[in-house]
CynX/NimT family MFS transporter (Streptomyces cupreus), 429 residues
Amino acid sequence: MMGLMVSEETRTTNPTTVRSPARVTDEPPVSSTRAWTTRLIVLGIVLAALNLRPAITSLGALLEEVRDGLGMSGSVAGLLTSVPPLCFAVFGVMAPRLARRFGPGAVVCAGMVAITAGLLIRPYAGGTPGFLAASALALMGIAVSNVLMPVIVKRWFPDRVGSMTGLYSMALALGTSTAAAVTVPMTDALGGNWQSGLAVWAGLAAAAVLPWIPFVRDRRPKSAEQAPAREDAPALRITRSRTAWALAVFFGLQATAAYITMGWMAQIFQDAGVPASTAGLLLAVTMVMGVPLAFVIPRVATRLPHQGPIALALGVCGLVGYAGLYFVPAAGAWAWALLLGVSNCAFPLALTMVGMRARTGAGVVQLSAFAQSTGYLISIPGPLLVGVLYQHSGGWGLPIALMTALMIPQMAVGVLAGRNRTVEDEAAR
C-alpha cells in the first residue's frame, strides 16, 4: 500500500536524461531518495497512528485487575477514565509552539518516545500516583501526535489529504480495536500478570520511534510552493473563525458520542438481557466498523465541495441506532451496533476537515490544536453525565435521550464546518 502512495514524480525518471552522462548518474539517486523518503514517512504515519489509542483501550480491558493490584478506589478509577480527554485538551495546546520551534517530525518522534516510556514505566511505578504520572506521560505523547498527524499529512501529501487521512484513521481504528480485543488474551498468555499485559504495548510504541528519527532535524517546507515565510507566519487569530469554532464543537460532540459508546454500550445491552460475552462482541463490532470506513470516508469527503451531507448521514445513523437502543435494544442489537459504528466514523471526517479548512501548514497546526483541544474539553462531561443519569433514574431512558439530543447539534455544526471556507480568510476579516 505504501508503494501506491508514492507520486508519479517519484516513480519515473525523465527520458531526456540519457543525453547527458552527468544527469544519468545524478537523477536516479535523487528520485530513489525521494521515493524512499515518502515510503518512510508513510510508515511513520501508520505506526504512529497505531499507537494513539492502545494506552487507553488496553487499560480499559484490565481496569479491574489494575484497581485490585494498586488498591485503587472507585473514585480514582473513575478519574482515571476521564484523564485521556483532559490530557488531550491540555497537552494538545502545546503542539503548535513545539512544532514551530523543533519541527513537526521531531515533535512526533518525541511523542512516540513519551508513549514508549509511559507505557513501560506505569505498570511498575509502585503505586497509584506513579501509575497516574506515567499514564499522563504517555497521554502527553499521544496528545501532541494527535494534533500533528493532520499537519504531517497536509505538509507531505497536500494533493492526497483524503487518502492519507483515511490511511492514518484506519490505522488508528485498527490500533484501538486490536488493543481492546487482544490485551486480555495476551495477558493470560504471559502468565496472567496485568503488569506484563500493559507493558507489552511499549514495544509497538518503540517501533514507531524509528521511522521518525531521520525527520528530527527536518524543519524545511516539503515543497517549493510552501514558502518558508508561511511556516514562520504570525499566529492566526483562530478564535475569529466561525469555521474553527464549528469544527471544534463538531469534534467535541463526536468525541462525546464515541466515549459514551465505548464506556456504556456493552452495559446497555447487558441490562436489556443480552449475555455479557455477546455484549462485548457487539462493542467490538462497533469499534471494528471504524477500520474500513475510516479509509473510505476521508477519500469521499475530499472529492465533495461540501462535507455537510456526510455529517448528516452519519448523524442519521446515530439517531436510528439510539432509537433502536431505546425501543428494542436486544431484538435488533446487531443492527444498532453496526449503525453506531458507522456514526462513530465522524472522527475521520473531522480530521479530514481539519486538513481542508486551512490553506497553509501553519494554519493546519493551529486549527488542529484548537479543534482538538477545545473538542476534548467539550467531551469530558458527557460520559460522566450519562453515568449520573443512569444511576439516579435506574434505567437507560434518560441517558439515551441525552445521546439523541447531543446528536442534533453535532449534525448542525458538521454542516457548518463542512462549508468550503478557510480559517485564514475568516481570521483575517
